[in-house]
Amino acid sequence: MVMKKIITFLICLIIPLAVGGISGFATVTGIESWYSTINKPFFNPPNWIFAPMWTTLYAIMGVGLYLIWQSPKSESRKNALIVFGIQLALNFLWSFLFFYFESPGIALIEISVLWIAILMMIVFFRKVNITAGNLQIPYLLWVSFASCHLVAKLISIP
To answer: CB-side exposure of 127: number of CA atoms within 13 Å?
Structure first.
């Protein structure tokens, strides 16, 4: 029983970390080429902060997923898992839209939808497990910051 929980926990961690790792390739490609040439707002963090921050956020998503997965089966649990999948897919897509396809306007629309999906995930997670929901708050805050950063870039705030 303990081994099954450990394996489930590892799978729950690997899912978002793998998604983040794959989308990270699009990010690295964009940072090394296009992103390094654009004007960034004064509050742009240094590039080195992004990898540890996103790794931490993906790990937190995995812990939240595990807490939801371990909860008793219910309609609320099912809905929480669906919303988790939607937000993870949107998260994956954003890196490609912004960094790989170099489309900040489309990325702004998409990150707005992602923000709503993260907020919904927090609400749905909290219905099943309050801790799982609260763990996602730093993720929402980071995406909020990224959204402000993107708006500033689009309107050319120095």
So the answer is: 15
Q: How far apart are CA 136 and CA 59, in angstroms?
A: 10
Q: How many Cα neighbours within 13 Å face the side chain of 81?
A: 15
Kindly state the DSSP code that residue 157 receives in the 8-state scheme.
-
In eight-state DSSP terms, residue 35 is: G
pTM greater than 0.85: yes
Rounded Cα gap, residues 120 and 84, in angstroms: 9
Task: Assign residue 154 a region (left: φ > 0; alpha: ψ between -120 and 50; beta: otherwise).
Answer: alpha
Per-residue model confidence as pLDDT tens for the chain (158 residues): 899 999 999 999 999 999 999 998 878 877 777 777 777 777 778 888 989 999 999 999 999 999 999 999 999 999 999 999 999 999 999 999 998 898 989 999 999 999 999 999 999 999 999 999 999 999 999 999 988 877 877 776 55
End-to-end CA distance of the chain: 56
Domains of the chain: 2-154 (1.20.1260.100)
